[in-house]
Design a protein that fits this description.
- Helices cover 19% and strands 21% of the residues.
- The protein is α/β, with parallel strands linked by helices and 208 residues long.
- The strands form 2 sheets. The chain has a 5-stranded parallel beta sheet, with helices on both faces.
- The radius of gyration is 16 Å and the shape is globular.
């Protein structure tokens, strides 16, 4: 397997039990990407995992809003917010990485969504689009100029991470065969279209 340069990082988004079959917010066939992601890790010298890490009282959980149904919408101070089923609660098995995912090669684990009052889809920013996770600074200090994204879900956390990566000046590639989508009300098509328009690439062969 071809080794990729030290200026390229593999960013593995939220490959956690609650996003895999049987989980609280399962993405269809979410676990099917794990063998490919494990193989891809061998190509990279910079590898980062992200992990949804919510307190039980998180404002994005429908259960914390009287009468609200999962997947309904509400308005937060930072904008529109999907109200999700309770998922990836700190310290639970649902928040753990999928058991078959290789995690000991990772240089860094970014935990996100741990502030009760704000959700965090992107690996770079909370949903207010201003509160940073610190990932951008870490990657720049490592000399990274390009990112390859894989994980769950294509149309939410992968998507928001990809557009923020471009906004941070990283050449960005999303490997769609190593992602799976929720595809809620056309969200996958919308995400692919927006990523394309912003300059995100979808073929790992584009890496210089």
């Amino acid at each position: 397997m071809t080794k990729i340069g030290d200026d390229v990082a593999l960013l593995m988004i939220d490959i956690q039990n609650d996003f895999c079959p049987g989980g609280a917010l399962a993405v269809e066939n979410g676990d099917a990407i794990v063998p490919l992601v494990n193989r891809m890790q061998e190509q990279f010298s910079v590898r980062v995992l992200t992990q949804d890490w919510h307190p039980a009282d998180h404002a994005s959980f429908a259960a914390n809003h009287d009468g609200a149904e999962p997947f309904s919408m509400t308005r937060m101070p930072y904008g529109d917010q999907v109200l999700w089923p309770t998922h990836c609660v700190q310290g639970t098995s649902g928040a753990a990485f999928h058991r078959d995912l290789v995690t000991d090669r990772a240089d860094l684990i970014i935990r996100k969504g741990f502030r009760p009052e704000i959700d965090s889809y992107s690996a770079f920013f909370e949903n207010d689009k201003t509160t940073p996770t610190g990932l951008g600074g870490y990657l720049r200090e490592r000399g990274v100029t390009q990112l390859v994204l894989v994980g769950l879900a294509t149309d939410f956390c992968v998507y928001y991470s990809a557009i923020d990566a471009v906004g941070q000046g990283f050449k960005t590639t999303v490997v769609t065969e190593a992602c799976r989508a929720i595809d809620m009300n056309g969200s996958l098509e919308a995400a692919i279209t927006d990523m394309t328009e912003r300059g995100v690439r979808f073929d790992i062969g584009d890496i210089a």
